[in-house]
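chain below, 611 aa
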Amino acid sequence: MVNRNLIRGLDLTEEEWQSELNSALEGGAQEDIAWTTQQMDLNQIVEGRVLRVEGDVVLVDVGYKSEGIIFRNEWEEGELLPEPGAKVKVLIEDVEDIHGLVDDSRGMITLSKRKAEKIEAWLKVMETVHEGDVVTGVATRKIKGGLLVDIGVNVFLPASQVDVRRPADIGDYIGRTIQCLVLKIDEARRNIVVSRRALIESERAEKKAQLLAELEVGQRRKGVVKNIAEFGAFVDLGGIDGLLHITDMSWGRINHPSEMLSIDQEIEVQILHIDHEKEKIALGLKQRTPSPWESVESKYPIGARVKGKVVNVMSYGAFVKLEEGIEGLVHISEMSWTRRISHPSELVQTDDEIEVVVLGINKEKQEISLGIKQTQENPWDRASERYPIGSVVKGTVRNLTNYGAFIEIEEGIDGLLHVSDMSWTRKISHPNEMVEKGQELECRVLSVDQERRRIALGLKQMTEDPWATDIPSKYQPGQIVQGPVTKITNFGVFVGLENGLEGLLHISELADHKVENPEEVVKVGEVIEVKVLRVDPDERKIGLSRKRVEWAEEAEAQGATGGRPERPAAVDATELKGGVGESSGPLFKHPARGSSRRPESVPAEEPAEPE
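prediction:
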């Protein structure tokens, strides 16, 4: 049967094959050649007897009234010319009395020995060769689209049918004896198309089916590496290719299969998996030896110190080879107790020999967690000894947040200076009102939490609490003072007294009449005169009144005239509201006198420093 689908996929049309074959046969159009030797006629093959050789022609008697001539160039260079009397088969090309085609100057019949040989060869081939047969021949010439193969006659081997994978240069096959499968015979046009690829695929299919029936998972087989890719290598097991994935080549790390294998290398592999439906086979090379992970827990117990070699550095950590096939990861967080590391390359480089501590093992996932910092003393273990509460430390402002400033006491150890511990008197909204990044400061240690690695620092504790002595002695109830309006709220007005110290002028103390909106009476920045109503060191607030200043002025005026004005009773101390944004909170809430404890308004747990 003719493989029509394969024929359609060939590189040349039938007309192109015919043209090439005609050229290869060194003849013109052959459609007029007769295939019978029954009559003496043009294009008839007859047997003749050599008479003699004259110059460039050989005279032959073919039993006709005139002698026939064969041109001498019909014999190959170096080929012996026939002796007189020798028998030779020839093709009659021109006859004297037919169509007037005889050579008038010689008066003889024109014969062709070469064409007769080719026609007889074709007839012989046609008797023995059929479509689907396997033929053997020598590749003789490279033509457009393929090769000519001599199997007795020239047949056409398309380039796409030379091999399973098309070679870079089909000219390399010239002179080689090859076997091919006959795809198509066109008797009318006298050409034959053959395929070496189809024969190879057919043979491979037989071998593949046989091999698949023999293979079993766990078997060891020898094979030849046929192709190498980034993900692995294809190994010919003798009729079927198996995939040896890069992860199954070695228990150790390899970057490319070419580090272990080369094309045409013979290796022994183990069958890992067989997919009979898809005819796919997974192979393994490392499985021939025991996995080093089988005894990893006994060789590398948790807490053990071991040495290894850095084989890869990533943004999140470094991989360390402990032995061939066993690697562990040192995460960036396990590299230093105190240093802030942006990239592991700041501490380690590829090929470095380092000491590490085994932190954890996951045998199923084949993972080991390692640590570098565990080989050194943790400075936080002695932080309370090195920084006792009440001691003074020097540091540099490293970072500012909404709730405070982080002060670097030493490399990797920071203390938090909370906004509430920056000033005794000043109400601070953001740390940048008091400090800036890079600034060097002296602070007092307020507390140390070794487990949570936190140190609380205080700046205001470097000086005496003014609420303990200075403020109560300087501001007495009934005293008239002046100050600018610093802030207006819905419950009153804050008045600046000195060095960030503020007093609260409650809305009820602004004027004699009822005030709905304090901004109708005073403006921010306006300097006003107020009377001190109350100084409360425990609650750290000063209550002020503006209307009572006017009362005092009116009382003086009335006294001068002998009158006595009637005034409302004094405001009770509980009505002196304070706080920041709340109608019932204190104006200031700081530690009691002499206390180093953080104010009550500070959260029990400070927010973690932002990354």
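Residues 222 and 295 are 29 Å apart (CA to CA). The chain is about 15% helix and 35% strand.
thats it, cya
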